[in-house]
Amino acid sequence: MKLSALAAPVALITIFGIGPFQATAKPFHAQGDRNLVVAQGCPPGLAKKSPSCVPPGQAKKISRGFVVGDVIDIRRAHVVSHPGRYGLSNPPEGDLYVVKDGRLVRVDGRTGQILSILRVVDALLD
Known about the structure:
This protein is an alpha+beta fold and 126 residues long. The chain is built from three helices and four strands. This is Nickel/cobalt transporter regulator.
């Protein structure tokens, strides 16, 4: 089967995207989306949520029972004995990592004062 003299050039034009068959989509910067919300390493749908970058299921689990500066009873919390399993290095001297009400927090080992709330945890890993 022979290709006609016109079929080969039309096929090449179509394959390489030159001529009247060229794509006409606007580049991203020209699409005019001025309300784009971006958070590093976060999908656009989660970046718009409040709190940002937290899946809805985890956001519901976050209790508002304590904040940084509150004092908790360490005996009623799970003390993390293997911080590496949570992706953490050893805590600073005198501090502890504990899981309290489903949240991983860093506390002062003597007073039980919450120094930082790190993240929500779904399961105890140690």
